[in-house]
Amino acid sequence: MKKVALVALNSSFSHTNLALRYIREKLKVQNIKDLEIVFIEKTINESWLSLLDALIKEEADVYTFSCYIWNRELVETLSLNTKKILPQTKIVWGGPDVSAQADILLAENPQVDAIICGEGDSVSVDLILSYLFPEMTKYQPNSYDPESRLYPDTEEITWKFPYTDNELQTLNERILYYEGSRGCAYKCTYCLSGSTYRTRFKDIDEVLAELKHIMSFNPRQLKFIDRTFNSDPDRAYLIWQFLIEQTKELETRTNFHFEIGAELLTDKQLDLLATAPTGLFQFEIGAQTTNPEVLKLIKRPFKADKYKKVVSQLRSFENIHIHLDLIAGLPGESLESQIKSANFLLDLEPNMLQLGFLKVLPATPIKYECDHRGVIYQQFPPYEVLQSDGISAQELMYLRKVEQVLNTYYNSGQYYYLINFLIAMLEKPFSIFLELTNYIDKQYGRRKISQTERYQLLANFVKKEFKQQVNSNNLKLLTSELSQFGKQFLDKPDLFETVAIDLLKVDYFKQGMKSFPNWFNNFQNSKDKELKQRQKAIQKSLKEANHRQRMRFEIFSFS
Prior knowledge:
about 45% helix; alpha/beta; 6-stranded parallel sheet; globular; pyruvate-formate lyase- activating enzyme; Rossmann fold; 16 strands
């Protein structure tokens, strides 16, 4: 009996690996009785020794690793030590982070027997079987060079349905991934998908049948990994229409995530999307930047007016989670330009605004541009930019702090009412997060802040920092002026504070918090006799109605 181990090292427990499941299913259809396929799916958060233990106890003849920027260094460590312990075993790598620099990595890693270049669904199977059963393998012509240890992909690729029914049952609380197309219609210079020459689509009937099968298991979330899902508008419409109909018919809970191009959405699609059940769809709509010169440099199409119109319309439906993206550190972009882009996107009130940082991936066109411009970036995964020709190293470090603040206080949704109130106060809403970052840095430094402390932090920020600036109409960072909404609080700082703290109280209660912290102007401490009389009257009426639940009374400045 021969054994192959397919090894996935995901970035978190909620994720699942699609690539190795394709290989597993293609190996299965070979119907080889003397072949045992072991699927090992772990996370990078586990200790490397426990991972090594899981690998070597299998004593597999071939170990195939799926390599990405988040796990490549760990894969190197595990491969090296597995080979030392099991010297007769074969080590195979594949995946986007090794394909582009296979010759270099092979020279640096003699423990690796072969690297699959490109997609590799079929050629991985050929290579594995050639190691295990050389007499049974039908080689694809000129596909493998044993001297270089490179194994390139083939032109015609078909990908099989990756999940077993048992997996669909056991993984339904995790994120499942699905692929309806490969390649991308765009040529963004920072992206590996931009180097493909065409987009290939899986048969639409097959896609719909597979989606229906997945939905019958009612998973929590399915993410399409298609690079621009709606590059074919008619196809996208059919799939969205199908998912809406199936969800209404089956009453499933599944959320579907898509990466889309805003400029490609048609009026017909928008009319359809308006009818989608709330929570069914999640759209990631990456602007990356709004700077025309930078957009031209990275070869990314972007029409600001169209983008704004479409995103605003999608937000008005109130049924689709909208996730907008920015990339910091793009060549030619300054800090001021970066913040201008952030203000543009935040004005659209997305459910999530992701501030990411440029990763200068090997073999992407942007790498050569960055090298030409003297951009400094990590020479190892994840290849993240450290200093660009437009943003200094210190400014990028500052933006990383801003990213953490943005994720904690905006993207989490835990402080929704207060944060959106503060955002509405300003013409340049991103200044909130710049100000808050400065305040946290000054008051707390690098230490971890507990959830309870974060409410106190926000209350202090409102009372001591923001209130003073509202009163003087002088926000220090980037001179963000008050909006029309914000101007009504000029010379009314106490009213501003009252409303802001009351909104923070709403956020506090929505998170299930029960204590009365110091910043909390709660009803129990009120000395207002009229309010106390009203409380007694309400309690009396509830008692007469035999209402036995415990009640809590709070005062709010709004209704």
